[in-house]
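## tool: complex_structure
## caller: assistant
## args:
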Amino acid sequence: MQQPALLLENQYMDIAKVGHPSEGWGGKGTKMTVDKGNKLARTTLEASVNDKLATDPKLDSGSQKRIGDQLRAMYDELMQQPVPDRFKELLDQLDKKNGSKEGSQ
Amino acid sequence: MTPEPEPELREALLAAVPSLRAFAISLSGQVDRADDLVQDTLLRALANLHRFEPGTNLNAWLFTILRNLFHSEYRKRRREVEDPDGSYAGRLKVQPEQGSHLDFEDFRSALAQLPSDQREALLLVGASGFSYEEAAQICGCAVGTIKSRVNRARFRLASLLNVEDIEDLGPDSMTRAALQG
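## result:
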């Protein structure tokens, strides 16, 4: 249904799959496909030998709520920062230029 | 052919900027770099408007672009200068320059200690308001992978943020040991 919106992603798919810059997951998580999604539990058990926090732990709902609240509070603060003028200017500029010029890259 | 950005679309792009910035800042830990990322995202979106299917989720599309730019840039930088994740925490403490509450400092530094794939999954689902399915599309991975990453991220944050509480409680040192694996 939303496939068309994701077309752009395909040209960058390799980037997403190949190099995860994190120290955490190795290949196991990133190689996983949609089909294998429900085998996740087994996969993580297998991975637990190598990964620090491999088995999916369950967090009690109180802690989960606290984490969620703090995350959203931090995020809301960022969201409320004024939008820098450069973005308004950028979009205005492109709007004006658009008659004569296609795109920008 | 690039379709003309219609006024509504321009408004929609502009309206997406705050959430793109919040994501980019939380992802990169740097306001300047985040703003560059957002700008590149907008430029790339405008150049690829013909690939966007009207009626689908514009925000998810923009987040996908931003995320991919972030990762490709990260890899490029990594080749130039070795920039281990440790420096991220240091940078986070300095920003954002405006309107920051010290209350969030602990949280930010805990967030900075997460592996970046867990951090981005948590930000998408827990803060940006995407469903697990949307987050999976944005990250190009399975829904189960996103769920797992979000779980781990929450759990890790809880253990990072609660370490002192747990110490105060005393008898829970075994739990703590388990949390820290």
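## assistant note: Residues 93-100, 163-172 of chain B have pLDDT under 50 and may be disordered. The domain at 114-181 of chain B is CATH 1.10.10.10 (Arc Repressor Mutant, subunit A). Handing back to user.
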